[in-house]
## 1
Amino acid sequence: MYCTVVTSSRFKGIGNGLTYELAEGSLQAGSPVRVPLRNRLTEGIVVEILEKRASDEFDLKQVKEILGKEPLLTEAHLKTARWISEYYICTLRQALGLWLPAPRWTQLLAESVITYRITEEGKQALADERIKGKKQKMILQALLDHDGIAKKELYQMCGNISDPLRLLREKKFVLEEKRVEESSAASVPEIRAHPQLTEPQQAVYEQMKGDLRPSLLFGVTGSGKTELYAKLIVDAMQEGKQAILLVPEILLTEHSIQRFEKLLPRESIAVIHSRLTAGERRAQWKKIRKGEIALVIGSRSALFSPLPRLGIVIIDEEHEWTYKNEQTPRYHARETAEELCRNAVAKLVMGTATPSLEAWARAKQGRYQLVTLPERYQRQPLPSVGIIDLGSAQFGSLYPFSLPLLTAIGERLERKEQAVLFLNRRGVASALLCRECRRRVISPDSQLPFSVHHDRTGRPFLVDHTTGVTANVPSHCPHCRSPRLMEIGAGTQKVEQILKKQFHSARLIRMDSDTIRDPSEMRIQLEKMQKREADILLGTQSVVKGLDLPHVTLAAVLLADIGLSLPHFRAGERIFQLLTQLTGRSGRARPGEVIIQTFRPDAPEVIFASRHQTEQYLESELQLRIHAGYPPATQMVRLLFRGEKAEANARRSQRSLLELVTKEGNDIRVHCAPAFFGAGRQWHVLLRGSAPRTLLAKIDLDQCIVDIDPMETM
Ligand code: ADP
Ligand code: ZN
């Protein structure tokens, strides 16, 4: 027999594995082995068992040692890893690395425990009172009561007993054995509370249960998607299966845990996030592999938990960008989950109030099942939405707070209700906007908006991040000559200062990645809001969205323009999602209000969001994409070039691609540009068309990083 082994070694050219001969004995794919490689031994994972070898040119080396009887990964994991390496174009080792913590992999093996048992002779000797030593008697008595006890426990019971124990073993009264901890059989955790679904929720639940396809659960904010997740997870537990719940943001896991702790015992839930130490990750991994964990909650990497009996994967907020990994392997959790669930015969459920265009298109084609919850729990009305045109608002020194927004906040404080204020992502540099023609000041080199920075004396200047070129702030708008230029994008700190000045007595919580470092801090702040020990929650979008706070009756976005004037085909979609998230935070338990401040009050995404017309927005956006030839109407591939010769390599690659396109006469468009966030040192080539992947096999990819279905396309 032969097998393919992916080793932990990083030598070039062997990332997809090497063939070894297997002397005898049974071995399953997924098992850890030790194999010879370049005159030394290294550990590896068997990824395939082969009856015959591919060719007999070489003398194959033999597998030296089988490190564990039980495979580290299941067949479904291995198949999915293979799919990742083919679809996202990476080595099998890179794909397997998603599931396996860093080598040494032997550290992942189930530990063996030394145990002791009493023999028949030992029992007889004890009964006949032939044992003289006090300690020896004590040991035998203990073993009689606890047959097969672990060494550690025996020592705990009887004290230091190495000498008497040795004597007992010599007399064959006691046997020493090594026991490998086996993966536990299907154990059903205690279900603490069964979710009670409302009628519309129950109907959707039954639809999902009756369909093997992935389900897209399109439910307005506050419709009870989480309740449905809970119900589906409980079902899986009762069948002896396990579940993965993916959330877009690690800080939101705390929120989910709170909810699921009411459902299941805490020790059967594992929380996976990128801030675990290597040791913690390994410990979690072993627990999960052994079958002790029923539910894994975490950000995208939690998808790669080695659950032995996966029953369901749920992706909450399916549309979020954080589901795309921006390092090799550049996988998307949605696509990968679909493949994993197919291989493991598990159900996939994707929930969202604003489906991604990709998911929407697939639901329309029938690849996904579409189920909808159009109303909030107990028919709570969606909040009323007001749009404030920042271009014509008066601020004085209070920018970015318009007067109506300040009034609305004041009202909440008087009524002892709460307000949530969304802010642009921290650290996003501000731009220079003309209040007359509403365009941003553009860099002539890249045709992209300049960012405004301040030097140490506070003097503003402009920077083009794609080229590194700097410029002075102009006195007039280069487009319309108006002098009414203004810097937009105020940071969290400034906003906090204004709020403190305006509302002296208000209790304010600021939540961004500066003030919240880990989930437990998040929990503390959320509890403050739940117990009404705070009045205003000010936070960046990534932190604040997804919250379920019943006393909030005002939600506002201070500036809903991020990215709108960037040449990004998903910019509108992103704004729409953000605004819909915002409407979801307000009035969850009593009537609420939403305020959108924007420089683009007429933009379709703003209008549709303010009217809660998600389906209409998706349809109009889908038409635009079809018309302009963007995903999901086409497929996109991005080749990213870095380093000294980034530009030259990118241009060369573009030329060879264009030649191929002309020769083959296909519909693929090839675009070459500096990458927006690359400070002029990164270039990319973007391909889009019906099947751009087919070109990749025909060109040299050595100099670039391949990004399939990219999210970053600027
Ligand atoms: P979504 O995830 O769709 O935004 P949630 O699951 O957070 O909605 O539900 C919104 C609110 O309604 C929550 O406070 C939740 O506890 C409550 N809720 C929804 N469905 C039910 C139900 N079947 N029974 C009790 N409470 C429910
Ligand atoms: Zn202008």
Note: The mean pLDDT is 87.
## 2
Amino acid sequence: MQEHGNDQDQIPQDVMKQLQGTFSNLPNAIELFMFAHPAEDNVFTKANRQVIRAFRQLSDKITFREYAMDHELAQKWGVTHSPTLVIAPDRYRIRWIGAPVGEEGRTFLETLIFVGLGKSHLSEQAARVIEGIDSPRRIKVFVSPTCPYCPQEAVNAVKAAIANPEQVSLEIVDIQAAPDIAEQYQAQSVPQAFANDVMIGLGAQSEEVFAVSLQKMAPQTIFIPDSDAEEVATDLVIVGGGPAGLTAGIYAVRSGLKTAMVERDALGGQVALTPVVENYPGFTQVGGKALVDIMVTHALQYVEIFQGEEVVDVTPGDPIRVQTTRRKFTARALLLATGANHKPLGAAGESRLSGRGVSYCATCDGPLFKGRKVVMVGGGNSAVTEALHLHHMGVEVTLVHRRDTLRAQEFLIKNLEENHIPILWNTEIKEIHGEQRVESVTLFDNRTQKASNLPVDGVFIAIGYEPSVELAKKIGVALTEDGYIQHDAQHRTNIAGIYSAGDVEGGYKQIVTATGQGSAAAMAIFEDLINPYWQRKPA
Ligand code: NAP
């Protein structure tokens, strides 16, 4: 793991001023305690000191005390791992095993603000569920510093621990700092949430879905809000916060359209999970998450983004009615920029062992496999980029491809060769084995027709994407034969006022094409709303 600096001089001046303002208005003191082996002085311990020092410069409301692991308070509070942060133990039961570095800085910032405010900031709907829980819930959320999806799930849990401190306790566990706990829970992907040792969430959930999962003690997939949920009138609702949606948002607002964007997961879509993006104009090479952060910062200057919220229903008409897990929108137009989901391999054992060694995100889960043996399945740009990423982080990776030539760009293939990453050609994975977690795979050589067994700790899958069209199908939007949204040159679908952009339309699936489609769709929507084609009389 790299050390992550977080000192004040790295924070832009305007953000600093905003944070100082926020922290100076917090009514409550925020007591932080760190327990660590003094002699150990590992990167997590150092990172905690560094991060907390930066926050303490923002506010004197934050106090910090550091104790050795054999201190009587460690025994009294049952602290077992070094380092552990204990947060405001007089009011809440929130702990952090590891350190809030990388993506987790956001979770830590929000935690400090909520603790300082003494408020959970849960939506009304989620608060009702959490506050109604009347028996103990011991939550554990496994995270990693490189996982863009993790803050959403960790923040859900923090909010629950603040909303119902009598019943809810929380441990945020960095899988790199405490691999033994991850092993104990067989948590081989992040984020994963457990309550009373039962898995309640695999991947990021909206806070309402998390709340019901915690209440029912089983992963839920959907939450329908009460009928009295807030109603918001707008010109345009964009569904999806990837490059297409973000660009459309910027263009629509700048054209004068009141615009709301709803994104159920992390902003940035697939790009946020791409270790390195090559060929995006203006950047020879840029980290996927870094590019997303630039786009999101830009979009936020214009668009109101409702993140962690999911569109559950749409009723076409004038206006179009959009129901999310939290509120209702009425809109004159709807843009579906729902992107694509990773394609499953379809091998036996794959779904059973998902999160138990089967992974679709090398960026998120790679650190767990450092020094271990994995296969990466696929032959396109994603598989090669991610194999290189795993290799550079010290994972022993072998590429498995079903043909004898790669689909990836020449530049990446050369890089693969230079790094001596082994490739199994003409090979398919027929079955993934393991009781609690991945132990081996059955390989099938499609030239010799021979099967063999390869012991591995992980199976990473990057074999392309399937369009996310569940919502489009539910509304009655017509699809192409390949399952993408059917649209015309103005990105209009078969339903008046409903448009599409980005990977959900098919085509080249490059970031640059998605942003182009997003801008074109927004301009078409603007023109159509001035002069609606569905109201024009035939000439
Ligand atoms: P992709 O280009 O569609 O490649 C998918 C790969 O998976 C192919 O090699 C394919 O094999 C293999 N495959 C598909 N189904 C399979 C199955 N059932 N079993 C085994 N193998 C299977 O997908 P991608 O690599 O995810 O890339 C998606 C898009 O993102 C592309 O447009 C790509 O250019 C872009 N991308 C760009 C960058 C960048 O930095 N510019 C980085 C990553 C991705 P065959 O070759 O035999 O069909």
Note: The chain has a mean pLDDT of 92.
## 3
Amino acid sequence: MSAEPLATKKGLGDPIDRVDGRLKVTGAARYAAEYPLPNLAHAVLVTSTIAKGRVLQVDATRAERLPGVIAIMTPMNAPRLPKKAASEGARPAMRVPTLLQDDQVHYNGQPIGVVIADTFEHAMAALPEIHVRYVTETALLDMATAPRNPPDTVRPLGGNRVTTRGDVERGLADAAVRVSETYTTPLENHNPMEVHNTTAAWDGDRLTLYESTQGIFNVRGSVAQAFGLAPENVRVVSHFTGGGFGSKGGPWSHEVLAAMAAKVARRPVKLVLTRRHMFGPAGGRARTIQRITLGAARDGALTALRHDSTSNTSTLENFVEGAATASRMLYATPNFSSTYDLVRLNVGSPTFMRAPGESTGTFGIESAMDELAHALGMDPVALRLKNYAERDPSDGRPWSSKSLRECYALAAEKFGWGARTPEPRSMRDGRWLVGWGMATATYPARTQPAGATARMNADGTVLIRTGTQEIGCGTYTVMSQIAADVLGIPVDRVHLELGVTDMPETPASTGSVTAASTGTAVHEAATLLQRRLAENGGQPVEVSTSTRPGPEQQHYSMHSFGTVFTEVRVDPELGIVRIPRVVTAHGVGRVLNEKTARSQIIGGVVWGIGMAMTEETHIDPHTGRYINADLAEYHVPVNADVGTIDVHFVDEHDPHVNPIGVKGVGEIGITGVAASIANAVFHATGKRVRDLPIRIERVMA
Ligand code: MOS
């Protein structure tokens, strides 16, 4: 464990090292693709090379005769699944995997087959020998010309396509200053270090899946449904997941395909996606085109805010990137409207990607606020304080807690914002143009039902079991800390078991809910255990609990807030942008572990730097092929791209959000970052970049 024994530390919030850190750095932590099942076969996906059409014929005769090849599944010979699972229509937000049940091709890179072989290498070697004939149709690949979805299928997070309050037209007419601009964010793809993978093993009609996932119960439910099994017949195991960021929130095609392959091969099958298969078959961030119009009085008070977002979906699903949701509640304007539109493209289905909606949306609204501040000749922080929302402007509810004012003050002080000269191009260091920008960060604080058991063993150790998953955030650690804190014992006397669907159900680790939801269940289980022990005279005892959020969820609006201040340096001749330092301050309720929480924010900021500067998935406009589907061409930040990240949390006591006062830190860290950087680039250069990423030619344009 840590150099300093954990037993010397006790408090909740202490920055203790990860309790699973030693397992991870020694390679002993077992990830899903590392279960050495006897007689294991290996599967790889065969993917389409056209973007739209039908698979006419698959000639695999040569491939089938290659060494080690066991079988090749195609749309023609794959086992038929019960109809219901295969034919569910594209309802709003409904995941529609492609499972070789028909010959339709919806995007370039779609799974259209599976090779099963005795080794991964033999399976890969068969791929070039599989010859597919298609009927090719013209693909929809251009957002400017592709048709819009019918309005009734556009349901952002299941909500309404249009939201209004007050009278935006009137508010704009009354405004002394208006800003109306279009901001765009590109297609992006999740690139966790661990690619998606499933190992499937049948025992009669009982199925076990070793799975890289953010949601073991989601996988269980979907796979059980696909095969027409009772959920109890599917056991999902996930002790460690090497990052997910939304793409592993729910199952795609490969889980069911692996289980189908294991049926065909009559032996356990491991299916690991290649890095290229991460582009298309496993989600990604939608492209957004955000039209934002702000109106303000001379003193900066917003008279109107309009945010209209168009994003792409696939031809399989109707996923809406909720880019306007943060705009609804960030500022106290009386007049607001937002609309969403969807364009169907022949690309892989988009899905949740870290702070889905808030990351893209805060780029739009926080860039627009910076433009408004400049138009008014007002300090960007002062403009935000002028429009500070003391209650949730979308519905009038009080906040469960909000420390955004303190965040602005703290970050501004740590950053040295007072020394900023407002005029663009007014700050220099030698030949470098220096720019200082800032933006607001926000993310909802959600708590969902969760369960846990707690057992006091005869040796004085405590076993906590809860069906959550460790996706790299520190779940083993903070859950252990919660239990240790309640029971008044050292953290190393708590043993935490998670990641198996036999355990009490908890939500998927998405939407920043785990610490709040599973943490509440662990807290209650430990509390019950302590009470029972007192009644029991200290005999070994086990308790079980399931918690659900109370009525406070209706009475209060629950969000985390924060701010991101950024310094950029721009080479005036070459347009190169460097980001030497970022200062953040967030109010996230109770911080369970200052070290893991800080890591979450750092991770979010690093990703925000990638979002701002480099990340973009390129699709060939003629073939729909994912052009840069690897880490050589899809650029995420490396060490040299990241300077100092100075993370601060303000003390925030939230008595309403849940019994442990936790709001979650998984996603807020990326929000506001791209706008903060774009605003700093404007301050440095006078050039407003409204299209991400901030490429050199956009700075120099
Ligand atoms: Mo998060 S994008 O909901 O995993």
Note: Residues 1-9, 85-92 have pLDDT under 50 and may be disordered.
## 4
Amino acid sequence: MTELATSRPGGETTDSDWSAAVAAIRELAPTGRVLLICHVNPDGDALGSMLGFALGLRRLGVTRLQATFPGAFEVPEPFVELPGVDLLVPESEVWPDPDLVITFDAAASSRLGDLAGRLARARATVVLDHHASNAGFGGINLVDPQAAATSVVAEELLARLDVPLDPQIAECLYVALATDTGSFKFDMTTPRVHEMAARLIATGLRPGEISRRTFDTRPFGAVKLFAEVLARAELEPAAAAGHGLVWTYVTQDDLARHGQRAYVMDALIDPVRTVAEADVAVLIKETGDRTWAVSLRSKGAVDVSAVAVALGGGGHRLAAGYTGHGTPAEVVAGVRELVEQHLLPQG
Ligand code: 5GP
Ligand code: MN
């Protein structure tokens, strides 16, 4: 199997990386156990790229197939109708020794939680990702920091495996692409992104219905929760060298009072980052005792990926996250100090 693991960790993805991935899948997938893993607390790109690829493997005739993510087995409501969700298994049911492991949208093996150990046991591992901070933790690494979403990488690999797009695969890849481009609004929305969207929509997708279900639907209780969390937001105009910072937090108690599940917190960063007076937006989401999943966003003045990396996390230049500890005020104090050190050149 050594010839299947030729990828240079951390280097640019080359033709030989793509060939190695195709060879590993063609050799191991027809008869072996194939395990697909996406990152903890999965978003639309993690689940969409993984399930779209899973459906493609199923089309190739692969039958011993599991798709999973670490932690509590709760599929966020916006994704419960994604094609291929029937392939998802909880962490507790994952094969201990799969033959082939393929990961999606995970910038580091730490994002795979306790499932990271499955990589060492597999005969081959393929990492599909688009985070610049990805150092290449797989045997074969398909990491394209220019790709707007991991589903861009997944679509390319499916094409190289001669799997045609069908409406189910396309819907998964579309949800992923729409998620990571902010519904085709962010700067990375290149002609290549729209060309891919056109290919996907041409299979018969209904973008209006998909985006309403995925992005624009939430329970009434979540709307009331959003109101409360936004009402306690604080604006610090002098922070980030005068570019401004806005922050707020949401606790497990808030969720319980409004009868909401944890996934609803993920969409809360979007109204927070609309604040005109702040370049940096910080949402502090309680996940355990004095433990918080922290979302960071910038409009261009600050490299929040560098801030997150300094705090043990990662992400993209303008969208990143990490795990914080202490009170919300203590968490934001750490961020406030670091944003001053990671200003981006303006102009
Ligand atoms: P979000 O704030 O939407 O959870 O995440 C924004 C970006 O930061 C995503 O690309 C996500 O993968 C990354 N990210 C969020 N939290 C973490 C973390 O704890 N560690 C790492 N390495 N990346 C994170
Ligand atoms: Mn992504």
Note: The longest strand covers residues 280-288.
